[in-house]
Every structure is written in C-alpha cells, then in structure tokens.
Amino acid sequence: MTLFFIGIGLDNEQDITVKGLNIVKNCKKVFLEAYTSKLNCDLKKLEELYGKKIIIANRDLVEKNPDQILDPTCDVAFLVIGDPLGATTHVDLMLRAKELNIQIKVIHNASIMNAIGSIGLELYKFGKTTSMPFFEPNFKAETPYLIIEQNNSIKAHTLVLLDIKMDQNRFMTVNQAIEQLLELEEKHQKGIFTEKTLCIGCARIGADDQIIKAGTAKELQEFDFGPELHSLIVPSQLHFMEEDALKIWSK
Ligand SMILES: C[S@@+](CC[C@H](N)C(=O)[O-])C[C@H]1O[C@@H](n2cnc3c(N)ncnc32)[C@H](O)[C@@H]1O
User: Fold this and answer.
1) How many domains, in total, are found in the chain?
2) pLDDT digits over 30-72, tens only?
3) Are 188 and 237 found together in one domain?
4) Which of 46, 78, 110 finishes a domain?
C-alpha cells in the first residue's frame, strides 16, 4: 500500500502527468491539498478527468488529523497543485507515513519555483524565496524586505510568493505586495525597495492568459494583472541576456 504525492501542475486539469493520472485512476482514495495554491479550473473538471471522487484536504485535516490520508489498507493519492514538494513542502506528512511503515512515492510536476524561469532570469541566480503575508493592523511582517536585502547583498534575485487566504477567497495581488514593500521602505529607509526599483510581476504563470510585466515598482503598482495567482520578482544585478529578456516584458 502506497501514499502517492502527486503534483498536478499550475494551470488546470490537463496539467497532471500521464504517470500521475494513471496512478490516480488506480488509487482507492484521492485527496486534494487545496490551501496553499489554486488551479484555474474547478474540482468537477478534475473529477471528470480522473474518474474519481476527490476529497478536499484543508490544513486541519493534513496537519492535525491526517489519519484518513495515512491509510495503510489501500493506495492513496495526495494531490498537490504545482509540485508536491515545491514551495510548501509536505515533509511532515511523509515522515508520519514512514513512521507507520506506509510506502511513499513522489510524482513531480512543474512548480512556481521553476516556472518563473519563463521570465528570463537565470534560476541559478535566485536567492532565498520569501512569502509576503497580508499586513495585519498589529503585525506587519518585515521578512520579505529583509530577504530582498540579504539576496541583494550576494547579487541574487528574489522570488516573493504572495499570501493566500483560501477560506476568505482572498489572494494578494502584485499591487498590494508592492504597496506593503514600499511601506517597509518608508519605515527602514535603506533604499532596498523604492518606487524606482525594477521588478517583475507575474500572474497565472502556465495558463493561456498568463501575464508577465517588468517595470519600476511605481509602474507595476498601477498595472492590472487580473485574477489570482500573482507573484513578484525583485531582480538583483542583471546579466546582459537577462536585461534583454526583461525588455520583452517591459513593453
Ligand atoms: C505555496 S506556493 C505554491 C506551491 C506549489 N506547490 C507549487 O509547487 O507551485 C503559492 C504561491 O505561489 C505563487 N504561485 C503559485 N502558482 C502561481 C502561478 N501559476 N502564477 C503566479 N504565481 C503563482 C503565488 O504567489 C501563490 O500564493
């Protein structure tokens, strides 16, 4: 009996791999981790293609109550949007499975962590990835600003992943992320992220209507990227080929 961690890609039901699809079809139970990312299609489309009923696995089920997933009596598919171990890892679930002597197998897929290669910056030159949470009245996370500073110090680009509040159907936009970073700049005054900072905003990478736009923070703040999901990239020192690539997106 095996617990399969299956990446289902970035766009819609069509993005699962042939290998992943064949495994899903043979699993007795199929869960979809649906709190760290979002597909551009609804659950019905997945169920139709897979020919399976899908159980939505929210954070509570995965982290506090995973017994249904860790079932040693049958093959179980745990579907993750993107790659199962990209960005948000599910190592905890893997370790629990190991403790129960449940075999695990990972079926990889594209992740936002490598799909941003399509903007033309070298993936090898990215530093730490950071997440930008929505500011709360009493807590304004400074980590993204500090990570951009750290990455800049080693001439590394920064990928900023943006907050998702699935239960409220709330997804941070590139515009909101820029606004928050400018607020942190206002506080720290280190010149890390100003209105003149070159950045790249992207939306729905992998979908037919994906958007990639390069410009200053001020320019991007006024640009409409459309529906979720969005990410922001803050480049550091650019190679001339990266500069050429960014010209494509600044028109
Ligand atoms: C936890 S990460 C996604 C992890 C996922 N397992 C993966 O491998 O891509 C979620 C964040 O990544 C970014 N993201 C994911 N998919 C995206 C896409 N197709 N286009 C733009 N940003 C995306 C968004 O900022 C989103 O809030």
Assistant:
1) 2
2) 999 989 999 999 999 999 999 999 999 999 999 999 999 999 9
3) yes
4) 110
pTM of the predicted structure, to 2 decimals: 0.97
Positions in the chain whose pLDDT score sits under 70: none
Residue 34 lies in domain: 2-110
Residue 25 in tokens: 């079809």
Q: What is the CATH number of the domain that holds 125?
A: 3.30.950.10
Indicate whether 24 and 143 sit together in one domain: no
88 lines ligand 1 (CB under 6 A): yes
Q: Specify the pLDDT at position 154.
A: 98
- For ligand 1, whether the C-beta of 90 sits within 6 Å is no
pLDDT score at 89: 83
152 lines ligand 1 (CB under 6 A): no
Compute, in angstroms, the gap from residue 89 CA to the centroid of ligand 1. Answer: 12
Same domain, 211 and 105: no
Please choose, from the candidates 36, 132, 123, the residue with its C-alpha nearest in 3D space to the C-alpha of residue 86: 36
- The structure tokens listed for 1 are 């009996």
